[in-house]
Amino acid sequence: MSEENKTEQQTPEQSTGEKYMRTVKSFVLRAGRMTEGQQKAMETQWPLMGLEPDSGMLDLAQVFGREAPVVLEIGFGMGDSLIEMAKAQPENNYIGIEVHRPGVGRLLSNAEKEGLTNIRVFCHDAIEVLANCIPDGSLSTLQLFFPDPWHKKKHHKRRIVQPAFAETIRKKLKVGGVFHMATDWENYAEHMMEVMSAAPGYRNVAGEGQYSPQPEWRPVTKFQKRGERLGHGVWDLMFERT
Predict the structure, then answer these.
(1) Is 59 marked as a binding-site residue?
(2) Where do the segments described as Disordered lie (predicted)?
(3) Cβ count near 191 (within 10 Å)
(4) What are the residue ranges of helices labelled H in 134-232?
(5) CA–CA separation, 136 and 173 (whole Å)
(6) CA triple 54-173-221, angle to 5 deg
(7) Strand, coil or helix: what is 180?
(8) In this predicted model, what pLDDT tens digit does every residue of 191-204 receive, in sequence order?
(9) 98 is in an annotated binding site
(10) What is the CA radius of gyration of the chain?
(11) For a 10 Å CB count at each end of the chain, is N or C smaller?
């Protein structure tokens, strides 16, 4: 998830249908102008690769025109790493969710240039997409790379990785499917480990309390490069649905 994005967390009152409470936004939508090329890609490629949240629950085999493992990434930023993965692993189908329109435009433009047919895109809030469009038990992998860390303690409640979110992800994964997270903030890595280790129905792929080595198929993103320049480490966490 890029730091430009915006999703929302439900409060317990909302999720149980009780009195409405405001949602807690897990990150802030950063404004940005689209280039001419990005705008053109939105106009020409969105009808081919774009997915609309009001279309309801997806038939993934129909969406992609084939049966294949589905990898979903929340917050792909400018989309470069998602393009790289889709190009390197054509046997997978990829769904990207991103609310930053210039990033969506860039991804669509690059997907067209690379001739990729295994990517589909939502430009919408990830929490709503998961609830309304992604069938339970349908995903082989869900990726959340470098979400906004909300490093100030008073903002920790805005972090997207929370117990309710872990349960939502578990429902969307197939048995044996993997929730793969990465962050360059050690405190957030510890938070992720605490939440996911306590979440029912998961197994830490690397072993209890252990971080995973960065898999060779996960590209180094610009957020990772920036974090490394600032002296941050990088932590990957991979939890399998049991």
Answers:
(1) no
(2) 1-20
(3) 18
(4) 163-172, 186-198, 222-229
(5) 7
(6) 85
(7) strand
(8) 999 999 999 999 99
(9) yes
(10) 17
(11) C
Helix (H, G, I), strand (E, B) or coil at 131: helix
* Bridge partner list, 50: 121
| Catalytic, out of 54, 136, 148, 236 | 148
18: buried, middle or exposed (CB in 10 Å: 19+, 13-18, 0-12)?
A: exposed
pLDDT tens-digit readout, 27-47: 455 567 889 999 999 999 999
Active site (annotated) includes residue 59: no
Instruction: Find the helix packing angle between 163-172 and 186-198, rounded to 10°.
Output: 60
- Predicted model pTM: 0.86
Three-point CA angle 97, 99, 100, nearest 5° = 120
Report d(CA 2, CA 122) in Å as an integer.
14
Is 152 annotated as ligand-binding?
yes
Backbone phi, then psi, for 125, in 5-degree steps?
-65, 130
Residue holding tokens 């929370």? 162
